[in-house]
Amino acid sequence: MIRSTVLLLTLCPLIMPTSAADALEGHVQLGGSIVDSACNMRVGSDRQTIAFKPMTLNGLLNGDTSSQHSLTLYISDCIASEKPNDTDVSQRFKLTFEGQPNGKYFAIEGIAKGIALQIKDRQGKLVSPGMVLEHNELSTDSLMLNYSLTLVGVGHALEAGDYHATIKLNIQHF
């Protein structure tokens, strides 16, 4: 067994130059199927955006919470039909917020500097980028998830200006 492996590895460099010429010609074929329909999701805003009101740098430095916004997500119609009804709802869903991290917060882009977006769940637990979200909903056909979004300083010099962030909610249901 060891000899055949060594022989095969010894022959690979001899074969490579001929296959390298064909490297530009390739074909990829993908196939798949949709096992269940996608979930329906509703956010408080039809545009699925949240606009923070302008605030002063002094307000942010002094811990002004007027920049806090609530975010309620309604997720429905995404229970896998093959799953038994006695499976715990929290085991049927894997939810994560995805976005550029800035430490434990979500990074912002734009001219403004020294701030980030903080997300907390309804119990006040911090939600970080890529973290699996906990939910204890009892309903088997829909979830209502409540979060708060707040601008926070991140320890760098603050600079005034416009900013934006894109945060995606990834839903996997089993």
From TrEMBL:
Signal peptide: 1-20
Key word Cytoplasm present: no
Superkingdom, natural source: Bacteria
Claim: Transit peptide is one of the keywords in the record: no
UniProt cross-references to InterPro entries, sorted A to Z: Adhesion_dom_fimbrial_sf, Adhesion_dom_sf, Bact_Fimbrial_Adh_Pro
Localization terms from the record: Fimbrium
Keyword annotations: Fimbrium, Signal
Protein family per UniProt: Belongs to the fimbrial protein family.
Protein name per its UniProtKB record: Fimbrial protein
Species whose genome carries this gene: Pseudomonas capeferrum
